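BACKBONE STRUCTURE TOKENS:
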Amino acid sequence: MSAHLTIDIEGMRCAGCANKVARTLSNLDGVSHADVNFALNRATIEPASADIRERSLEAIKQLGYKCKTTVISVHIEGMHCASCVTKVEQALNTLPDVVSASVNLATGKARIEALESNQELQHQIELIIESLGYHARPEMASQGNSAENHSVLSSSSWMLVGAALLCVPLLLPMTGVIQPLPGWAQFILALPIQLSLGYRFYRGSYHALKSHYANMDVLVALGTSAAFFYSVALMLTGHGGHHLYFESAAVLLTLISFGKWMEERAKRKTAFALDALLSLTPDVARRWQDGRWQEISLASLRLGDRILVKPGERVPVDGRILSGQSELDESLLTGESLPVSRQPGDNVIAGSINGSSTLEIDATATGSDTTLARIIQLVEEAQSGKAPVQQLVDRISSIFVPVVLGIAALTLLGWLVAGGSFSEALMAAVSVLVIACPCALGLATPTALLTGTGIAARHGILIRDLQVLESARHIDTVFFDKTGTLTVGKPMVSHWYQRQTAPEQLASIVLGVQQGSEHPLAKAYTDYAHNLGIQAAETDAITAIAGKGIKASYQQQPVLIGTATLMQEYGISIPDDDAQLLALQQTNGSLVHVAINNEWFAAYTLSDQPRETSASAVELLHQRNIASYMLTGDRQESAVTLAEELKLDGFHAGLLPAQKVKHIAEHQKQHPTLMVGDGINDAPALAQADLSIAMGSGTDVAKETASITLLHADPRLVPAALDICRRTRSKITQNLFWAFIFNSLGIPLAACGYLSPALAGGAMALSSLIVLGNALLLRRWRPGW
């Protein structure tokens, strides 16, 4: 019986849906049988292959259903170059249940999106990686092996020191300090280096060739072995007069190994942001249990647990303060440099540092559901992804090593045909093999991505979609939502006007009515009245009138609070000759009227104040020649006042969500656009724009739709996000330039005999270090204010 493919499907409503999916899958070319079980929401397809998997997933998607997938992270040891990455990805993508596989050379991690139905897939993935000659282990296991990694790096250091000491007597004759050593002495000095440092390259070459591909290990092993064994042959045949090349093989292995050692140290620094976030989670928490506080592991925490957090400790979960008042440092999570005050009823987030007082909190989110865990997941997803330009690198790396082997063979043959000696021809070919190693090519993109997305996360900018690196550099227009984006999103009473006497009595009546309502606009007035020390009057019969206001009774007199439309419906006349009331109508805010016993008494405005940093954000965009517009569903008067205050280039008011989409689509015909929003009603516009940013204070729908999420509500992070995206894209371009320039110039120079093997090895190592160093310069980036 042939192997079958199993796909779990979401969205099927009835047996008819299942039959439709089954018919569609059965009609696909190459599918011999397809069955869909509606009770299990599962499709079974024969035979199983990568091609049939891709076409089946696309067919199910086209029918409007969703395939359940899961993400598997695996740490891979032993990859050295872009060719290694390409081969591992190709092998993983051949597994029928793997939807997509992405391997990052800089982090040594593979991120595999796979169908949920295969419970054995983790084991299959590890087996296929091991078969290629690499070592695989689950990501959770790898996170706990920092001490082991440090030990490996330390042992490599001692091995390099020993190799360097053995190289000294091999190199001294070149300086004229001592006479050339006998061949047997050179052999004894070079052999330990060939066996120890060369082992990793021989092992990697064996597994690569066994899997029918060639990588950097093949180039290094072939080049150093040619120099070493040619020297052995000369020594054994008694050609003592010939120059031996033991020092070339030994120095070459030492330099290349030193370069790889430096790479490993530098690559650790590129993941600094993720390491910093992971370190925010404490190992244990104190939970109230069996009448006392007990220390337990974080995995044992549950929703509703009562947690104790002492001064100086990190908060283990998202929660709400039950008792205690303190200041919390949330800088690594929100970018806010100053501690924030928290008291009973306030929310706290996992990873923040408690200040001077003990807190008791109620756990509202634990484990992978905490804000910190979601941030870490977003950063990991971004760092394990690939920028669009990486597709070109992958195509090049897949054929790079075979092409280099061909160039080396032609170099050897060319020198011999031109009358050169075999020694000269061999050394030129070895130099070609060594300098062409695609290490820098494989590191160019991932190291820049790691550093760029990491430093962005440190400043509260979460890049979710790497396509933004391409889009950001073209953006010349930004559309802002108003409420909650450019404004605080919390209405406040800004003006109060009444023509009657006894203002405190009137205000207390309004307070009595409003405090009985749960509407946000009612809360705005109650906060205003409480700040003035006003006491609420006794009111009753409070009834909300949807979209218009509220009615109630005070001492058996009807009270109306709401819009002008509400007043008109009840036949209440609003003064039209009052200059102060007319002026109030022109202010930035919503006008609320108050009538008692069928007579107009007062009016007040509710306005949403602009954020303190909104004007600065618009100015920063203007400095970058980026136009700023506002799209809002609010009324024209409020919009024009805010637009003038912030010096926006324009605005559109009174818009429904679909109208926002229409404005963006129209503008996209001539200008690449960015949409910034925070609400559910902004999601369609966020999806329509070329690039989208969601405010961290916004809804989950907005944040899931957007390409970038801002951890805290500061509009200045919008130009900062564009800036770091552009700089990261620039670093990728620079790194690829350096990677290609070393190979483009180095290979011809080596083929013509202008580079010795040792110099070629040094240049190869230098190219990788330049790429890493250039990427690490992004760590110096700061938002431009």
About this structure: The chain has a mean pLDDT of 79. The longest helix spans residues 717-751. Residues 32 and 46 are 6 Å apart (CA to CA).
